[in-house]
Design brief:
By secondary structure, this protein is an alpha+beta fold. It contains 2 helices and 4 strands. Strands 1-2-4-3 form a 4-stranded mixed beta sheet, with helices on one face. Helix 1 links the parallel strand 1 and strand 2. The relative contact order is 0.25.
Amino acid sequence: MTSAISASPDDRLDLRGTPCPINFVRTKLRLEKMAPGTLLEVWLDAGEPVEQVPDSLTMEGYVVERLEDCSDYFTLHVRRPV
């Protein structure tokens, strides 16, 4: 039996220009509305957002699968636990 977990995001959230900790709160709220096992792509600014949000999500039990530097922002892929 194969897993239905996808590699492409099921939803996207653009949080560029959103300060900490609001960006973490919005990410967590969106993840809570998503089905277990789904993948969320979050766009974050450099600096404090990209330094704080992935660590905070990991501490809350979410799986950070990828963090990519897109030159003027970062793309974070985080999966809701099954």
